[in-house]
Amino acid sequence: MTKLGLRDSVLTLTLIPTVIIGLLLGGYFTINRYIELDEILYQQGTTISEPLSIAIEQPLLAKNKQLLNRLISHAHNKHSPAIKTIAIFDEHNELVLTSNYHRDFDDLMHTEHLQVGKNTQVVTSNQLITFFTPIINHSTPDAQWNNAAFQTSLGTVVIQLNKDQAIIGQQQALLVSGIVIILALVLAAILAIRLSHMFMNPLNKLVLATDRLIEGKRETGLTAPMMGEFELLRQGLNTISDTMVMQKDEMQKHIDQATSDLRESLELYETQNIQLSIAKTDAQDANRVKSDFLAKMSHELRTPLNGVIGFTRQLHKTPLNKHQKDYLDTIELSANSLMTIISDILDFSKLEAGAMELESIQFQLRDTINEVLTLLAPSAHEKQLELSIYINAQVPDNITGDPTRFKQVLINLISNAIKFTEKGAIKIDVGHRLLDEERTSILVSVTDTGVGIPMDKQDALFTPFGQADSSITRKFGGTGLGLIITKHIVENMGGRITLNSAPGSGTCFTFNSVFRLPSHSYTSDLPSKSLVNKRILYLEPHEHTHHAVLSLLTEWQTQVTACFDQESFLQELNKEFNYDICIIGHVAAVDEMQRLKSYIKAVRESTDYLYLMLNSVSHNMREAYIGCGADACLSKPLNHRKLCEVLAAPYRLDHPVHNIEENDEKLLPLKVLVVDDNDANLKLICTLLEEQIETIDTAHNGSQAYSLSKSHKYDIIFMDIQMPIMDGITACKLILESSLNEDTPIIAVTAHALAGEKEQLITDGFKGYLTKPIDEDMLKQIISDHSHSPQSPLRRDKSRNDLVTLEPPFISTSLDWPLALQRAGGKNELALEMLNMLLLSVPETLRLLEEATNNQDCEHVLSIIHKFHGACCYTGVPKLKALAEALETALKGDCDLSYIEPELFELQDELNNLISDAGLVEH
User: Fold this and answer.
1) What strands, in cross-sheet order, belong to the sheet with 579-586?
2) pLDDT digits 0-9 by tens, 286-296
3) Which of 174, 570, 574, 827 has the fewest Cβ atoms within 10 Å of its own Cβ atom?
């Protein structure tokens, strides 16, 4: 929109209101004049016609035309020229007499308005107004009253009035209004123009002065005074002019000085640029020499290091004592760390020198990723991390590129995720996007639940020797070159790498690499056809692993019943339905072995083949589960090729027979200390350890254990928690602070430990924990995890799980004798001895429990229940064990004896029933 100037604004604001007001007033008065003239004509016609009709009544009755003629002629002449004609019609609408017979008179004779009623009617046309007034008979011929004859119509008087004078009057009114409006507009325009001149002349002078200032002229030319506010503007512009002149002179001085300084600086910069150019050339030459030197020296250093590592591994195969083995482990670890650093330096030097070239060979993507995961899985399993991978079924397996560099990127990202994650899971997802018929982009994301990276530290990760925190180098190790090398490799492969992280929320690295699709692909050699329509029951609580394995099984066209939790899994087992294969994924923790064994026992009758998936590479643990009834035990993350071959093996005619080597069991050259105040528990653990360990020492409380640890060196210490004189936690801290066993792993042995208590035990210094009841497989796994001596795997047989059930010593609803034999490792004499020890302790337990409850000593009751709970774990009394466990849990949560009074009475009744059923048991 164009804005109006000041002159136009003045004219507009002056003329528009004048026009509007003039039009409104002129229109108002003109319309009123029109209406007034019409009303005058109507009143004039009525005034003439109605008296005339009365005057005509008697002459018309007398039929006196002479008198009628004189009346209408007199009326016509008196009101001429307003009247055009006056006519009289009788009751039959016949013309009696007229004052003016004009050319349109015939139309009047045939009008329908001659039939009038009692009142005057008016008809208006363009030029005429016609009045029809009835002539009423107001007299009667005789004295008799006759309504029909009285006031009857004798005829009609018709008067036509000309509208010419009214129209002329209306036109005169309109003309006068127009003249008045025009005069008002002219006057307003004159005033507006004069007013605009009063404003515009000073303004033009001010604008001209402003233009002179803009042009840089020193004088404004505003010397004459102005009126009103314009004088203030004039003075202001003059002041600005004077100020600008002064500032311009001062600025010119500064410009001259700055120009002189700049000229000197430019001369100095030219000299420095020449020197920098020379120095840059020298630095590039030196950097090139350095990169060449690093590349050559890295190769030279790798050769002797390979020899050191190789001969160290060969020396491991020779007979060594414990100290020699520790020295060799340290040498090999140091050499491998040095080899990693040298490899990073070599890659970085290649990147700086631009000498890194990518190969272009055909390879299988899934096998390449499996090689990386097989290499890194043990590191994740040591930290009890869930390592899982999901590869979209649409991702092409045969691609062309550099598999070595692709594996290097994966190893770097996954190993970092394992390094900085203490608990949780590491998830790898692989997808792709088809670019064209010859190329595809492989998209890989590595997500962990580790410490996370602050936003302000993330950019430093992709710089040489850069890490999120300087303390990370000391805590976790590393050169800080891994991610910068990874970034350059990914970019050389046509992709880019990004990360998304926050402190405490983990980190997700995502990268993509472009590969070519080969013209000829490998044919799939997986035996998946043998698995078509096989019925599979699948249990896996971890969501990512669950979907990854389920995707593979669905791709192989199996009929899968997938379960996320124990409840749905057991519901499927309770159905009368047999499965071809059952796959159970579980955590490889020692305290979870009993639960997993119960799964194996429950599912064995409902499936032909049972396979386990564990986040462990422990050979002993796999053999223990196979001995309990599993057909095979696979390590997570699952290799798709290995999983398919294992599942299909029983259904193939050409599958090889896998024989388990039978190894003779040997005692391990270890010295172990077992600490427990309960004689039954102490005897059972020692009995189970005698089959595996060479030397076993025992102690009945923490004080004895601390004394022994100051004079004897042990390989492992098994420590009960609640003991008299000194508890296990205090003894553990003292042993780790001042004894010969400051680096000896101490394993907590407890009958009942909540999740928070287990974490607290690790914080207090324990290396692990065992939850009662304990079997020899659990002990064997703990010894394997925490001892440094090589261990021969026990030869297990599936028949080992089927214990010979002997006759129980007595019949009781509280005694489960097959369970007692199982807890005793299948040893009948040991099971009897453990049961007798429990029965002999029952009277003392009842007495102490009664005294403590009478004294309302909650802590003493908890101590008695805890000790009794430990004794119940090995004697085949599941009901008593469940009661003791419930009481101990309640007392640990809220030590209120009134709250657990019903359970205490039930425990006492069960103990009395057990003694009553047993009678006297001979040992």
Assistant:
1) 559-563, 535-539, 579-586, 607-614, 632-635
2) 777 766 666 66
3) 574
- Asked whether 428 and 413 are in contact (CB, 8 A), the reply is no
**Per-residue pLDDT averaged across 50-74, rounded?**
84
Give the separation between CA 651 and CA 126, rounded to whole angstroms. Answer: 116
Cβ partners under 8 Å of residue 27, min gap 6: 177
- Structure confidence by residue, pLDDT tens digits, 148-157: 555 677 888 8
Tokens 């774990």 belong to 873
The 10s digit of each residue's pLDDT in 87-136 is 888 777 788 888 877 777 776 766 665 665 677 888 887 778 888 888 88
Nearest CA to 749 out of 734, 725, 767 is that of 767
**If DSSP codes are grouped into helix, strand and coil, which group holds residue 225?**
coil
Q: What is the DSSP string of 79-110?
A: TTTTEEEEEEEETTS-EEEES---TTHHHHHT
Helices 776-786 and 619-627: angle between axes, nearest 10 degrees? 170
Residue with tokens 């008593």: 880
CB 102 within 8 A of CB 85: yes
Q: Which residue has the tokens 């404003």?
A: 199
Instruction: Give the pair of three-digit tokens for residue 340.
Output: 């990693």
- The rounded distance, in Å, linking the Cα atoms of 475 and 480 is 13
Q: Percent of the chain beyond pLDDT 90?
A: 10
Residue partners of 611: CB distance under 8 A and separation at least 6: 581, 582, 583, 584, 630, 631, 632, 633, 634, 646, 647
328 contacts: CB under 8 Å, gap ≥ 6:
312, 315, 316, 320
CA distance to 13, 130, 180, 748, per residue, from 188 (Å): 10, 46, 12, 110
Token pair listed for 302: 């790798």
430 token code pair: 């692989």
How far apart are the C-alpha atoms of 519 and 510, rounded to whole Å? 28
Dihedral (Cα; 202, 204, 210, 211), 10-degree rounding: -160
**Paired strand residues for 362:** 400
Q: Distances from the Cα of 457 to the Cαs of 446, 499, 507, in angstroms?
A: 19, 12, 13
Tokens of 299: 């190769």
* Residue located via tokens 């998946």: 528
Helix (H) or strand (E) holding 675: strand 668-675
721 pLDDT exceeds 80?
yes
